[in-house]
Amino acid sequence: MRYLLTAVFFSVLMNGQKTGEKPLNLELKKELAQIYKDDQIYRELMQPNITPERKAEIRKERNLSTEDVSTGLIKLMDDQDQKNLVKVEKIIEKYGYPGKSMVGEPENYAVWYVIQHSPKIEKYFPLIKKAADEEELPFRLYAMMLDRKLVYENKEQIYGTQIRSVFSTKNGKTETLSFVWPIKDPDHVNELRKNSGFGSTIEDYAKGAGGFEYKKYSLKEAVDLLQKKK
Fold first, then answer.
1. Is the peptide bond prior to 48 cis by the omega test (within 30 degrees of 0)?
2. Any idea what DSSP says for residue 157?
3. 170 membership: H or E segment, kind and range
4. How far is 106 from 210, CA to CA, in rounded Å?
5. Domain containing 196: what range?
6. InterPro entries attached here (predicted)?
7. Confidence of residue 230 (pLDDT cuts 50, 70, 90)
C-alpha cells in the first residue's frame, strides 16, 4: 500500500510538472519558420553543390529571372536580410529571445541566423549569450557568433568557425585565397570544438566548408591579406 501511494504521488507530481509547462507559441513558431526559410533560400542558390532541379524549384517559387540568379543574388539576399532584421527586432522587443521553450526547434535558431547575417551582432550579442546560457539556443551557435564578432574586430577567433576569402585578378583571371581566420589556441581548438558541439575538426571543416587545406595564419598575416584586398 505504501508503494502504491508513493507511485500515485509521483505520477501526480510528474503530471503537474507537464501541466505547468507553457505551451509553444505556434503563431510565432510559424512566423519564425518563414523567416528562417527567407534567410536561407538565396544562400542556398549560391551553393556550388545545388542540383539543377532544386535551383529550378527556387527560381519558380521566387519568380527569379536568369539575371537574378546570375548577377542579382547578392542584392536579393541583402534586401531580404534587411527585411528579416526589421521583423526580428520587433519580435525581440515583444518577446525577448524566442528560444526553445517558446517556439521549439529548429525555429529557435531563426533569430540567431538573422542577427548573424546582420550588422547588429554587437548590439544583440548579450541577448544571444543569455539564450545560450539558459539552453534556449545551442551553445555552438553562440560560439559561432562570438567568433564572427571577434573577426569583425580583427581579433583572433576561439572556435575556428569563420573563413575569410581574398580575391585577386591575375592575367584576367580571378583567383581566390580562402583561409580560416587565425585562432587564439590552434593547438587545442579541435578539443574545444568537440566539447562545444561541433561535429568536425578544424581540418575537416576547412575542407568541407571552403574546399581548402587548413593552414595556420598569424593575426598580422591575416590582416595584411585583407589590406592587400583593399
1. no
2. B
3. strand 163-170
4. 25
5. 138-230
6. DUF6624 (IPR046732)
7. low
